Amino acid sequence: MILERLARGATRAARITHTEHLPPRIGSHADWPDRIRPEVIDAIRSSGIERPWAHQARTSEHALRGESVVVATGTASGKSLAYLAPVLSTLLDGSEAPNGRGATALYLAPTKALAADQRRAVRELAAPLGNAVRPAVYDGDTPVEEREWVRQYANYVLTNPDMLHRGILPAHPRWSSFLRALRYVVIDECHTYRGVFGSHVAQVIRRLRRVCARYGAEPVFLLASATAAEPSRAATRLTGLPVVEITEDTSPRGELVFALWEPPLTELHGEQGAPVRRTATAETADLLTDLAVQGVRTVAFVRSRRGAELIALIAQERLAEVDRSLPARIAAYRGGYLPEERRALERSLHSGALLGLAATTALELGVDVSGLDAVIIAGYPGTRASLWQQAGRAGRAGQGALAVLVARDDPLDTYLVHHPEALFDQPVESTVLDPDNPYVLAPHLCAAAAELPLTEADFPLFGPAAEGLMPQLEAAALLRRRATAWHWTRRERAADLTDIRGQGGAPVQVVETGTGRLLGTVDAAAAHTTVHDGAVHLHQGRTYVVRRLDLDDDVALVEEASPPYSTTARDTTAISILETDTEVPWGDARLCFGSVEVTNQVVSYLRRKLITGEVLGETKLDLPPRTLRTRAVWWTVTEDQLDAARVGPRQLGGALHAAEHASIGMLPLFATCDRWDIGGVSVPLHPDTLLPTVFVYDGHPGGAGFAERAFHTAADWLTATRSAIASCECEAGCPSCIQSPKCGNGNDPLHKRGAIRLLGELLRGAPKTAV
């Protein structure tokens, strides 16, 4: 057994805090609906599939009836075939039409890798159908000379929401023949469309439906996800249409052994003298090395681009000591690579040339990597949905498999490896998105007006907030009303008003100073923290140091180097309340939700030793502040409550600060967010409340729904926060409970026992029913 070999030795075995065995499942077959063309059934049989699973047949039946449907079954349950069977059958019908282009279909994927993988799968499946099915990818990597062919001749176009928003909808007259014949829109991995990104995609889909109606088309939406809670409700929110759900998974599954793994404490001490655990990065690199030596095909999922590069690099170095042929079979995979680099890695992984891969979530979604034996997850990925998505990459060919969650030195990870019921006995999170967010909706109304003049008849499609925004858009001279319609009258493209992934501007190009070679890109929102002057940047196993970040030209100039450290940015944050929407008494305390303005500035960076994470020093930075108007949840306590909790003036700042850190760390257990999607501020005397106050806010303009979810689950959320702090074995606070990896104040001051008492006093006044 793979896990037994990994856990050999007393020290290794002690790191496993829990093992969950998910038993195998027997499959249940059905017959394809009568309306599926026999040629399509024959093509499916020639691929080795005699009969569909029952959920595949049911999905196809709804699609052929013209009903939008979401299939939410497990990883490797055949969701692709469930929607491809009716799509291919309809395309085949259309190819026999005496006049015109025939039927078309559009496929939307959240990543380019998934779209490229799906094109390969469709080509293989539809090969016996000849020229009747003409799949083509249309995204930012598609050569200009191929794009006209795709528009004119492809009948199954695979793209992403970004290209639909910026490239297809603004140019819809050039796509008129395709859109006029559009019968199906496939939305794969639909659970990824959450928060601000999901809200933007919901409005892009509404724009697509509006343009299709202009050409007389009303496409059926087919959605798929391996991990979705309340899938029909989430799909309806995303598309604006009623959607039938298929949730019973009738496919077989091999046994999955899922281990929770906590790295050991080291002899080192971190900030404020806190004990330090061995990093998840170092532990994952060890496990990936051991598995590669055993010939076990493995993907290690890592939360950051830098982490993926570092794990691959460490594993390659250690494997070279065992067998010189092994390092070449380990690689890193992340966003920001050039297109040709990504395609080459995907081919090597699919063929088996690669034995191990350290990957970011760019490879999490749907890409067929059947044949994997194991998955290592370096740090809780933020949601149970992502956890199961990543774990499901192993064993896709039906064989038994291993998944290992390696805990980071972090409050949530520590809590989860000691409370396995929070992972294995709970459903995946509900998808949180808010298409009515005015920061999201306003630019899409402008884009829609540029595509076709907006009228009052369009308002129901875009939601209840649309009509109220029109006077503001007119006042800002973004739209002009003529007779009964609003028009876009500016020279610039309306689609350029917003970045649907909420990244806040053009990506920063990473350029090697000596050669001028473009290494890749970094999102604008992350540039201040990842490619500031002096930052260590990893790319394809090579280490670079940023010599200069030019914010005017969006360029980071780097030189190759081998420093013995990594870098971590530090920032400061101030917050002011703009409007309180809801206020609930918790005894004398108050729990509030509303709008805030956050001012953030990166002020320095730390240099940390590789592997151990020991801090070597801090360097000041001079970067401009950034302001953010967003949504927040906050709570206040009174002087009497502080007295009851025995928190005096000297402990107050540290107790609030510790409670803030831990609550941010625990929120991903209750909302579909990552701790990096949210921020927090704690103030002993806030000028707007005139009381000790802790804020937790969404890290996106206009909010993303996370703080609102925190408000509605506050009693459970803060109870789990107190439990996480109290159950930690450290004396005065550590990264496993109250220290934060992104604290702008160097995790000072912090007061663990004060936080426990303060949260206890706060929770005593919590209402008995949910907020």
TrEMBL record:
Gene3D superfamilies the UniProt entry points to: P-loop containing nucleotide triphosphate hydrolases
InterPro entries given in the database record: DEAD/DEAH_box_helicase_dom (IPR011545), Helicase_ATP-bd (IPR014001), Helicase_C-like (IPR001650), Helicase_put_actinobac (IPR022307), HRQ1_WHD (IPR055227), MZB (IPR018973), P-loop_NTPase (IPR027417)
Claim: Nucleotide-binding is one of the keywords in the record: yes
GO MF annotation terms: helicase activity
Residue span, Helicase ATP-binding domain: 60-246
Pfam name, any one: Helicase_C
Domain of life: Bacteria
Domain Helicase C-terminal: 287-439
Keywords annotated in UniProt: ATP-binding, Helicase, Hydrolase, Nucleotide-binding
Signal peptide residue numbers: none
The protein's name: Helicase
Organism: Streptomyces nigrescens
